[in-house]
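Appendix B. Raw example, untouched.
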Amino acid sequence: MEEKKFLILSGPTGVGESTITKEIIKRFPVFSRLVTATSREPRPNEKDGVDYYFFSKDQFESEIKTGNIPEYQNTRDGSYYGCYQPDLDKKLASGHNIIANLDIVGAKYFKEKFNSLSIFIMPESIESLRQRHRDRNPDISQAELDARIKYAEYEIKNESEFYDYLVTNKYGFLEDAVEEIIKILKNANFKLQ
């Protein structure tokens, strides 16, 4: 069985895929997170090259033309997100396993190009996801919360079946989801040391 090198963790915004990613990397330093490129503005405390590669819209479109962004999506707020090829090349050259938090477009691209393992992180309920959003951002508007929940419902209904595994991340029980993913990684022949 061929050794796996590429893991995709996806899920609706707020479900905890970024937190799970950090836990996997902390426990298994052989994993390195693929840093996504975006055209949106950095949020407070976000660092270029660490959280995202930040580009203006024009710069992002230029990077697409040069081939530095081979897959991307333009989101409902008009921001681009995509794979930044120089970061991918660097991670591949390092010999690390790559872990990426991607939407369905990116997940399909990496599944085809790298035979990656894909896991969709599910909330235990839509209400718990709603609560996560409120806890994470108490100032979120009702309209924004409703839009996020509506899109999460769409992802769960229409996209989750594409993934190799579904793992539920119950609110307050992160460790259970992490342990389930570790079992999947071991069974899928990932090098963990």
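End of appendix B.
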